Amino acid sequence: MSDLFGATASLAFDLLVRTVPVVVLGVFAAEVLIALRITDTIARAARPVTSFAHLPGVCGTSFMMAFLSSHAADAMLMDHLHNGRIGRRELLIAALMNSFPGVVMHWRYLLPVYVPLLGTVGLAYFIILMAIGLAKTGIVMVAGHFLLPAPEGQDTALPLAVGGRGSGWEVLDAAWQSAKRTLRRILPIMIPTLIIVAFLIELGVFDAISSYLSDISTYFPVPVGGLSIIAAKFGSFVAAASVASALLVAGEITGREVIITLLVGNLLSSFVLALRWFGSFYIAIFGPRLGTEIMIYSTVLRDGITLVVIFLLAWVWL
């Protein structure tokens, strides 16, 4: 029992160190950008996206931030919500759109593994992942276009700051005071949630779910040799790529079957990943109710598109 609590404390500390500072910086950065009226300048790059989705300009700043840090980007959205700059439905649409930059930036981790191990097959798999992410974002943009009212005026950014900027220290102090009000709402939920998630991980709850889900893979168009890739995928994408590479070189599985199998592994493991990191990301930042909604919408959209792609590849790519 003492080992369990010790491991939980270590993992919880690691999650807190990796998550809380980024969220604090994200909220503070949002307030600084708004105080300096820089949001319009940054948001211009994302204006075609936010304008079509009927989102205010401040959401464009968050979208661009998501290319650097998804935690900071979503913390910005919560700051905008708490300060009345965006509404609840606007936050839902913006948060779902913020997932695409995160998918794009995965190239830093995926390409150095998949391309050396799988060659053109690995590159094709990565391109398909990007296409799935793009399709998801497109669907969300269309939903925003029809569900949200069009922003009034030509400038989609909301006028937030009033009066002069003041000195640099005054701006920073005002931004920090505003950020603290938002952090008082976020951190009391985030910290205990991260601790609970760490405890469940060390207790083996998510590993048990992974073991159960790996058996469901027999219902998908996956060759017998591909089952070992799916089992490895529940451990890590590096292990899955390594197993797939060995099978591909040995001629036991084709490039097409590797891609389909990896996609099935993504589909099955996404449920576990959503649960495992649900607390350390969605609930921790957005709160229980809003975080649950965003997680469900995001997972259903991504997995639904992935499922369609899997069967299209199985039936069309012969």
UniProtKB/TrEMBL annotation:
The chain crosses the membrane at residues 20-38, 123-148, 186-206, 226-251, 258-279, 294-317. This is Nucleoside recognition protein. It comes from Methanoculleus taiwanensis. The lineage of its organism: Archaea, Methanobacteriati, Methanobacteriota, Stenosarchaea group, Methanomicrobia. The keyword Calcium does not apply. Keywords: Membrane, Transmembrane, Transmembrane helix.
